[in-house]
Specification:
The chain is of the alpha+beta class. Helices cover 36% and strands 22% of the residues. The chain contains three helices and four strands; from the N terminus they run ααββαββ. Strands 1-2-4-3 form a four-stranded antiparallel sheet, with helices on one face. Strand 3 and strand 4 form a beta hairpin. The termini are far apart.
Length: 125
């Protein structure tokens, strides 16, 4: 028995033999069954993105003009929060589209002809 286990461990059986086929079968079973049993952590994170489209327009050298619907930003349009807090919240709102290497320079609130409110954000990379 010890000799058989040792030969399985060192894979000493010739190709096409019964024991070789057993080893290959065990490897295939491992490959196809274990993803169903274990969580390898390789699935993408389920993060909620914006509900409305975010419009991004280039505004010069590495500059971006980003328009975000007000309902996609966790901030009241008439807030009295500090500039640092507003920058952080706006950056979090645009991150799904622009990535995390964007710096918010300034912003303003706008309302279109239909009465929809939005944030206009000037940023750069």
């Amino acid at each position: 028995m010890k000799k058989i286990l040792k030969s399985y461990f060192y894979w000493t059986y010739p190709r096409g033999s019964f024991h070789y086929d057993v080893l290959v079968t065990l490897i295939l079973v491992f490959l196809f069954v274990t993803p169903q049993l274990w969580n390898y952590g390789d699935k993408p994170a389920q993060t909620a993105g914006p509900r409305h489209p975010i419009q991004v327009v280039g505004s010069g050298a590495r500059g971006l003009l980003i328009t975000v619907d007000a309902s996609d930003v966790n901030l009241d349009l008439h807030t009295t929060a500090s500039d640092k807090a507003v920058k952080k919240i706006l950056r979090q709102a645009i991150e799904p589209v622009t990535g995390d290497a964007v710096f918010v320079e300034r912003w303003e609130t706008v309302t279109d002809a239909e009465g929809n409110s939005a944030w206009k954000v000037w940023a750069h990379r």
